[in-house]
User: Which sequence fits this backbone?
């Protein structure tokens, strides 16, 4: 059934129908469409457009349809153009001609925008929960792995010793920003378009503030043209998800590296890794590779939808229909990724002895320079001197801590015998005690903040 | 069934399975997977890895599976990890333990690359056909609409008169480039990965040239590492399709404009347009809006997949699995768009009187400048003089052809009474007779070339 | 000068230098680098790492450098690697070896992140101002153009009459969302990285809260690893700007259409339009075409930078250096676009009679259906009946208001003679009086809200 | 100077000028603009539009301008709108009013398209050379490093032993595809637009075939509308470069990994690496990180430009002006990256003992399974058996080659004492001797092909 046949002499061509029909995608809005229609019927009754009898019939019919969706017994017909047509068609079957009164003063333009915003509000909520659950994993690991030391890396080169807990929490904060962004997006999503008609507003005296309340929207769209054309909320959620995808990718990349034989810091649990069809020995970090790979798609979904949006004049155009496939795809991707990655992180096995072995002397070069700074050597000069020591060590193929005192002394007279005390990971870590540093005390403070955030918002 | 369980003590977690399983997407490679396996079995026999008996059993089993796919009777099981596992599992059910010999010397890495290339080769062929059919529409319209004149636009402003046939053919050439690109892509797609193993090559004495011939590949991949990691062909096809999408979008945008009440050049046929659920008078160019809108997605698919590719080290990583969903999506989009747009263009009604009415005098301003140039006035000065005439006409609210001769003469003495002859669309068009111009003769020549291309390559 | 030569035996190769040097881009951070260093020097003094004398020398030197930047007298040398090296090099020239004490406990990793955030905070502020100024143009035009009616469009087809003021305000709200997003981004930008060292935190007892206050940051980054690796704020600003670009593009597209001869609603002022080098009559909306075109680039900048970010493991990698060119480019684009578009909109000439002439009878079809609804006809049936009337009018080539009463009556008995009153734009507009509708009263309310927003935040 | 002032009463506003002027970007087309104009002058003379005298003046003037560009003495004026205006303005200064005759029958629309295609043809050539030089590095390294063995990786996990030469050549083939694509693009770039006028063709009897020959174009654009609107060649080159960027990124990522302390396969030469401003020991692979990072931008440039293109109707629109900044940016990026990466690869130091040490027993698991296959065990079962052996080895913390024969025999009776011979890298490599495999003979064949390609095309 189409809702617009009146002025047309001929029926739509099958290829055109195939392209035009959106039911395959928008059937996911079934529940929201019924909710929106129930509220609209009520608003029409309050505006005296529907009498009590029509209203009762319509709402009873809609509740029946809602039940059919819940039970999975709703039957779509081949010529249902979209979810809105399907619902109105079914309503007609159930209650007869008063079904035709429901669409008074409403257009699919404001209807679909309303349905989709209702869906997005729930989706945002669920995304926030998923990321929150991931954050809890970081907090839990930071607690349970407290005391484990590994090299911190920059440029994929060993830099300075850090606490593994500090590393877990680094990821906590990235997802915290994702959650904040999603939550802020909510206020621009929770805006009621219904009552905007096709573009110019509705002709019936609808109380839109009441309608918004009924449907749980926080605000009412202040301009009907903008209300039917605005898909910023879709772009925003896509962006939030794509940036969260970037964080998942960076995390995944790190886990993949740390799980390689060469690093050997992590061992994936059997239940969260896969093998090779050819090579019997392989244990592959497939889940993290998918976490890394799928975030490319998330960026593509954002970019593709913004490109579609950009190509429009103001007001409603059919191109906007692309909004749903994009957002559903992004949402489903996160819904599949997060539980698997969460489990994989929770069950990750540590090899602290490998991490410990990776703390070679070069990681204390900054500490050695700081040693000189504390004895009055300008940092830039200290950096130069330690650089020379590194060179000596490399040339002679020995560790920095094995360069004889004599040679240190030749480099600079500020070196004393106690210089060798710097080659100690705990000492190095404990000295980085300013807020945000890797010292145990600072990390405990961080952990306290993180725990607070999780419980505050839950 | 997984193909790699041996070294694992515990079973994979359900969330991990959900993320890792790719059957939902890659079941579309069913036919190719069987074809590839049939050829591989033959190659193994030729290499004496399979004896004649095993080979017969395996090939009979595979043919049976092929039949099941064709008839739609193949049953997937919940724990089939991907299409390759499903086929090997079924083969085992059909022929027992010799099924386990098929995967000798092969890895899913080279197997999936082979399957997907086989699929892509066919897809490219079908895409070329679809675009070719669209070109034929342009040629047909250019012929049937010959003689109709409308303004050519630049900056969405009327510029100079053109033949509508010239306008149709402008689109012909854009899609010609798309076809050429797709055809060139073929040579980099039609390269056999099979026999590359997981990464280092196969250990059995496989004749890969023969294998390529058997499967219809033009070349054999010369490096096993590259062979399992190379997805350039996917990016290339995505690019070709995205750029074709840009052409569809530009065409659609033009049709949408020309079908507006304000332009009024085109009227969409009822069978290829849709109405409004609220506004009874509306006749909307939905199909062209979808043509325009969906090309945004195509750019997103390209960009997303390249982003995924970019995030990898060399050699095979699981992220590559994202290749299929992207290409399938792009392919399906074109497959749905093209037939509908083709039909809509074929049935488009013209309003030649509206086009004709749009040929106002200002469109001949260049001709007027050329008039002066032919009489010895340097073009830059002629341009300036005609600009002043335009200003006079605008100020007095009259057409350029109604500015009295006296005033022209005051502007420059090279104006003669015959200047008014320039205000003639046919004269204007006929003068643009250099190759590629809009003069009827030049357009006929163009049409001849276009027709040649269509039949040459068909 | 490099800041890291100590351990290297040989000098860097010229091609490598060429690629590695970032001064060409990051010299724009000169002012921020000095500000950051001044604050760092103070923090080092407070932490007793610098004595009072060193501090005085360093801060005097830095102030001198600041002056040189302001006066444009600072001389960069060919072997300055980046802005940080240039400043430290110059400081050494000015004050000698104590300059070498400034970098104690600091890394370029936290330094550049701090400089760039300082820059971004200012940039966000300026972007908000630019968009606010554009909003004021919409408010002003909505006021001065009050009473002008034109068709509202959907699908680029005439839909229903609207007030031009309503149309202007539709754009107001889009940019309001852009401003809100930018402002929210600020809280994630105004976070101090300094004191995070290279990755593990600083070894000196720096009071980072005090340091944040000194530099005007609202928060202190809680994790040193995240602090040096986080470029979310760059992606966020790029997203905000790209989505604002989408709004500029949609607005521009609409202005281009409305300025075409066919629509003829707007005439661009000579001072904000351009001509053709060949066609003397042309008056082109180049500025709006650039507004439309450049928003493509803005999406590309977002997508490109997110792609770069996605390709990293956690912690600092040199790839992050790409952040600056991207954000500078996006910022400069808006800085060039906005003033020109603002002026072009302010000086736009209206052709109300063309708008009025475009209000053909078909625009009242919804009103005619509503007429029936008010007389008890279910909307869906009313829609069908009016659709038939449209068909009759089209067939007979007459306006909907010219279809004889007899024929209306044959369609449905609810039609009365007063039906012809619906063909009145003011009546149509006034009836859309629910909040957000196009009725004068509703638009005045909207305008009040808009004005409030502009002054509230200014 | 503008070339279009005639019809305008007022001068353009400064903000509008700022946005509209493109000289800052398109001045790079100076040489091409003069070349194009020289050829156009000749064509006008041949068409009798210019007499011999005018032609001589114009060509002498243009040659003088060419010289000024070469010498760097050409002076741009503040009010030069673009490179075309600047050249025509200067020509007027040099030869007076006959300069005004040059633009006869030409538009900036076909002029700029011609200039830019001339530039792109040269750029493609230079890009091909740059990638060819990189290929030569791979060939050279493959030769000089012959015999070095390292693990081949899949999923960043050790898979099977390979020759380092094989790994180098894997990259050779990726760039070979890039070169092929660039070369194919040439045929769609080398198409002459000149003679298409603004949109409808030129009115003068220009011999466009001759003109194409004069300028070195292979074809003449067959449709004037398409000729001024077609920027496919820009998108194509951007795509080729972005995909080459993906290859650079994957290569860079691999080099970064292999240069980490944990892998330790490569050591960067001092002349192609950098240090840390804080950590004296650091030696960072900055160049490869930039190779990886900048390829994100390249994808963004492609995506951004395609988005701009997509947003247009057919024919010329000012948005197309964005083409140049995008392509220049992409081209410059490759020009800076390639020489540095080339040098870094040439000077890379190998640590064959680290590679050798990484060839642990697990890498021979496939060989062990093949061992069983050769003794008649179906591969799938052999895979399972070896998987169990791996599990045993892991559990007992011993190498696969140290699992006692007794235990192997318990697993399967096909194991014989000679099974231990499989734990030998050379044996493993030599067995992968099918075309494209890692066996020395196969790699030598590959090397021969690669060398052939380099010399054939050079």
Assistant:
């Amino acid at each position: 059934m189409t809702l617009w046949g009146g002025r047309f002499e001929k029926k739509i061509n099958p290829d055109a129908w195939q392209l035009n029909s959106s039911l395959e995608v928008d059937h996911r809005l079934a529940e929201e469409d019924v909710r929106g229609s129930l509220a609209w019927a009520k608003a029409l009754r309050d505006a005296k457009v529907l009498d009590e009898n029509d209203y009762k019939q319509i709402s009873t019919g809609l509740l029946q349809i809602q039940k059919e969706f819940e039970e999975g017994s709703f039957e779509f017909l081949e010529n249902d153009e979209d979810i809105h047509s399907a619902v109105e068609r079914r309503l007609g079957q159930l209650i007869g001609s008063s079904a035709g009164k429901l669409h008074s003063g409403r257009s699919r333009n404001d209807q679909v925008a309303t349905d989709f915003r209702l869906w997005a509000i729930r989706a945002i909520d669920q995304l926030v929960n998923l990321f929150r659950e991931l954050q809890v994993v970081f907090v839990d690991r930071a607690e349970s792995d407290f005391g484990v030391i590994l090299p911190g890396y920059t440029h994929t080169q060993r830099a300075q010793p850090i606490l593994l807990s500090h590393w877990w929490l680094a990821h906590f904060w990235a997802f915290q920003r994702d959650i904040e962004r999603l939550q802020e997006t909510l206020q621009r999503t929770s805006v009621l378009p219904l009552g905007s008609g096709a573009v110019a507003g509705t002709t019936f005296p609808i109380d839109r503030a009441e309608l918004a309340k009924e449907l749980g929207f926080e605000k009412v769209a202040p301009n009907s043209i903008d209300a039917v054309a605005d898909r910023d909320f879709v772009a925003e959620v896509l962006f939030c998800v794509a940036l969260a995808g970037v964080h998942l990718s960076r995390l995944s990349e790190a886990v993949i590296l740390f799980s390689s034989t060469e690093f050997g810091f992590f061992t994936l649990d059997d239940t969260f890794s896969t093998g090779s069809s050819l090579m019997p020995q392989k244990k592959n970090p497939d889940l993290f590779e998918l976490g890394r790979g799928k975030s490319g798609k998330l960026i593509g979904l954002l970019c593709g939808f913004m490109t579609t949006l950009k190509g429009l004049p103001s007001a409603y155009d059919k191109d906007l229909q692309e909004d749903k496939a994009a957002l559903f795809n992004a949402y489903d991707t996160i819904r599949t990724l997060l539980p698997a990655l969460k489990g994989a992180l929770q069950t990750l096995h540590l090899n602290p002895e490998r991490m410990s072995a990776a703390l070679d002397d070069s990681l204390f070069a900054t500490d050695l320079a700081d040693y000189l700074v504390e004895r009055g050597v300008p940092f830039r000069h200290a950096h130069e001197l330690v650089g020379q020591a590194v060179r000596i060590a490399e040339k002679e193929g020995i560790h920095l801590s094995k360069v004889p005192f004599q040679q240190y002394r030749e480099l600079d007279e500020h070196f004393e015998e106690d210089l060798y005390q710097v080659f100690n990971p705990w000492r190095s870590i404990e000295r980085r005690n300013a807020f945000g540093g890797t010292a145990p005390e600072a990390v405990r403070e961080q952990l306290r903040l993180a725990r607070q955030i999780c419980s505050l918002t839950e």
